[in-house]
Write a structure and sequence with these properties.
By secondary structure, this protein is an alpha/beta fold. It is built from 17 helices and 12 strands. The strands form 2 sheets. It has a 7-stranded mixed sheet with strand order 9-8-7-6-10-11-12, with helices on both faces. It binds NADPH dihydro-nicotinamide-adenine-dinucleotide phosphate (NDP).
Length: 449
């Protein structure tokens, strides 16, 4: 069988075993598409069924979460933890609270996390979890009661040397604080069982900034490879959450002009550029007041709000999708490229649909997939774990240098496995293979387990 036939047979089996889990199929296909040609001359990887084992999570646990709202009504949600693979270290990956969360979404995220964590060079396995709980419109007390109930169940499966969750969509410092407090209350133990913690109780400097900054460093490194830079470039960003605001901040520091930001209701376009002062306004609006991005146009009246649309229709040179999965389709990719977009670095996980990725590759624009581009967050989470174990706190400058070095190393690994010619690097292929190699080698060393 050719590599292509083996890939098709593998995907057929995967779909049969995981019916209807569209996002999971998509994430596995992305990796398998690069890995099958790479292992064509490596029979051991086939005999040992490495890809089959990687695409079957070590375990998926689901549990009931009961909590009472402010009116005294009993509410019921579902929670999950997907522990995909711990060949190279304890499971590590965020928790997502959003109405769209289901088993397929968390399996895709945990699978992708396995390769991302491998790319960081740190000893971290891959996992992901969350709930279909919707934090929008809930009071702080409701969120607290939900988080306490969630952690009561989750704690059966996690631990500082077993599985160390962090934040993701809908889970920020407030939620991490409530969950950490509950774990400490239940176990009488103060250990680093979560990352993204507040600085007062074992958090790390620059953890909040790390994913967004890293995504921009990756764009910077791809441009540098072509003797270019971000200076003066126009940038479209989607999202206005943790990843998006710090991606915008780093773009400004590197001299780029940020034109757009968005939330799940629409996007704002500011032709004059979102400068530092405007960005502070957005941070406060979205992350402190938890309001809608539309309010930006009330303060900055020249900006335009586009309801129910995504920012990819705005002409830009660089696009940074930083909100959620499948937020950029082929039609939008074509609009971006036709408008002169030369580079995409993914802050969100799997934001680009497969046929849109195909188009970026056909057009040979700079394209860095999420598993590499947004690995800065988990890298600094890994360093938060080290600081917790050693009972020390690193200085900001040390952490900034380390983040820069880790992102640069990831770029180099992706370039190594993705270089097609002197002028084109297929970073998609490079990231998938570079992420796979370390995990596969560890699995082969363990024998059949
Ligand atoms: P936040 O919850 O802080 O922000 C998410 C942003 O995306 C919000 O602006 C939100 O809008 C918007 N959004 C969420 N869902 C949708 C949707 N279905 N359609 C359109 N917009 C949507 O999350 P993060 O910034 O932490 O995460 C963003 C992405 O980055 C996710 O894909 C996450 O997995 C990924 N990521 C995050 C890391 C981190 O360190 N935080 C690390 C690596 C990856 P609204 O306010 O309307 O909900």
């Amino acid at each position: 069988m050719s590599a292509e036939e083996k890939l098709q047979a593998f995907m057929e089996g995967l779909k049969k075993r995981n019916p209807g889990q569209r996002e999971f199929h998509q994430a596995v296909y992305e990796v398998a598409k690069s890995v099958f040609p790479y292992i064509e001359d490596k029979p051991l990887h086939h005999e040992q069924r490495v890809m089959e084992r990687l695409a079957e999570p070590d375990r998926v646990v689901s549990f009931r979460i009961c909590w009472d709202d402010d009116k005294g009504n009993i509410r019921v949600n579902r929670g999950w933890r997907v522990q995909n693979n711990n060949a190279i270290g304890p499971y590590k990956g965020g928790l997502r609270f959003h109405t769209s969360v289901n088993e397929s979404v968390l399996k895709f995220l945990a699978f992708e996390q396995t390769f991302k964590n491998s790319l960081t060079g740190l000893p971290l396995g891959g996992g992901k979890g969350g709930s279909n709980f919707n934090p929008h419109g809930k009071s702080d007390n409701e969120v607290m009661r939900f988080c306490q109930s969630f952690m009561t169940e989750l704690s059966h499966y996690t631990g500082a040397n077993i599985d160390i969750p962090a934040g993701d969509i809908g889970v920020g410092p407030r939620e991490i604080g409530y969950m950490f407090g509950q774990y400490k209350r239940m176990t009488h133990e103060f250990t680093g069982i979560l990352t993204g913690k507040g600085m007062e109780f074992g958090g790390s400097l620059i953890r909040a900034e790390a994913t967004g900054y890293g995504t921009v460093y990756m764009m910077h490194d791809m441009l540098q490879e072509k003797n270019d830079s971000l200076e003066g470039k126009t940038v479209s960003i989607s999202g206005a959450g943790n990843v998006a605001v710090y991606a915008a901040e780093k773009c400004l520091q590197l001299g780029a002009k940020v034109l757009t930001m968005s939330d799940s209701n629409g996007f704002i376009y500011d032709e004059d550029g979102i400068d530092e002062e405007k960005l502070e306004y957005i941070k406060n609006l979205k992350m402190v007041k938890r309001k809608r991005i539309e309010e930006y146009t009330g303060k900055y009246t020249k900006a335009i709000y586009n309801s129910d649309k995504r920012p990819w229709i705005v002409p830009c040179q660089i696009a940074l999708p930083c909100s959620t999965q499948n937020e950029l389709n082929r039609e939008e990719a074509a609009v971006l490229v036709n408008n002169g977009c030369m580079g995409v670095s993914e802050g969100a996980n799997m934001p680009t649909e497969q046929n849109a990725i195909d188009l970026f590759q056909e057009q040979k624009i700079l394209y860095m997939p999420s598993k590499a581009a947004n690995a800065g967050g988990v890298a600094i989470s890994g360093i938060e774990m080290s600081q917790n174990s050693a009972r020390i706190s690193w200085k900001e400058e040390e952490l900034q240098d380390l983040l820069r070095t880790i992102m640069h190393d990831i770029h180099q690994k992706c370039a190594h496995y993705g270089r097609e010619s002197d002028t084109y690097i297929d970073y998609f292929k490079g990231a998938n293979i570079a992420g796979y190699v370390k995990v596969a080698d560890a699995m082969l060393a363990f024998g059949v387990v």
